[in-house]
UniProtKB/TrEMBL annotation:
Listed name of the protein: Nicotinamidase-related amidase
Biased segments, Basic and acidic residues type: 73-91
Residues in Isochorismatase-like domain copies: 18-205
Keywords attached to this entry: Hydrolase
A Pfam family: Isochorismatase
Length: 220
């Protein structure tokens, strides 16, 4: 069994029960004119996570891992978007309002798509989620249970929001979570660093932190 170089400790990885989970690498977060920018963020800060994520995706596919993609977004009628979420922000650029990539954070709109570099392949589950965590109100638990998955390699955006929420949910569900640091990104670099530090503190209170080079070596 390969042993992954990770903090706070090396982690043996059983590839047969390991999945790669790529969180919300959508145009709405990574490109101008989407939800991320509507919140006042500089979306170019997420670009650095794309090449490591692409390398990780290629390695996971080559190793035959289950690859799961997630997308944050809401139904066109907004019935799954709580008012407390919708009411935040400048009214003209709120969730559901029109923007250059279609209605902001709405399923089926161009902005909701995963960026072309990381497009899902046929057969790879795509989990549409209304919240920050990938387990809340989704079928992710069933997808993982059907494949007897025990370890999650988690990457995507943003580190302290949807990656963190998903890892916290997964940790409570009993999954070993490895956050792949350079394949994550945040609009707030200090929060990226703090988010990673929180995962691995206290003996790995939420899981492990590694990097794409180490994970790819373990997958090879
Ligand atoms: N995917 C995800 O992290 N959703 C967010 O809203 N992130 C922010 O950092 N805003």
């Amino acid at each position: 069994m390969p042993v992954l170089d990770a903090e706070p400790s090396p982690l043996p990885i059983d590839l047969a029960t390991t999945a790669l989970v790529i969180i919300d690498m959508q145009r709405d977060f990574l490109e101008p004119g989407g939800f991320g920018e509507s919140l006042g963020n500089n979306v170019s800060l997420l670009a650095a996570a794309v090449p490591p994520t692409r390398a990780l995706l290629d390695a996971a596919r080559a190793a035959g891992l289950l690859v799961v993609h997630t997308r944050e977004g809401h139904k066109p009628d907004l019935s799954d978007a709580p008012p407390a979420k919708r009411e935040r922000g400048e009214p003209t650029v709120r969730i559901g309002e029109p923007g250059p990539m279609g209605r902001i954070l709405i399923r089926g709109e161009p902005g909701h798509d995963i960026i072309p570099e990381l497009a899902p392949r046929d057969g790879e589950p795509v989990i549409d989620k209304p919240g920050k965590g990938a387990f809340y109100a989704t079928g992710l638990a069933g997808v993982l249970e059907a494949r007897s998955v025990a370890t999650l390699l988690v990457c995507g955006v943003t580190t302290e929001v949807c990656v963190h929420t998903t890892v916290r949910e997964a940790n409570d569900r009993g999954y070993r979570c490895v956050v792949v640091a350079d394949a994550c990104g945040s609009y707030i670099p200090a929060f990226h660093e703090a988010g990673l530090a929180m995962i691995k503190a206290q003996g790995g209170i939420f899981g492990w932190v590694s990097d794409s080079t180490s994970v790819i070596a373990a997958l090879g």
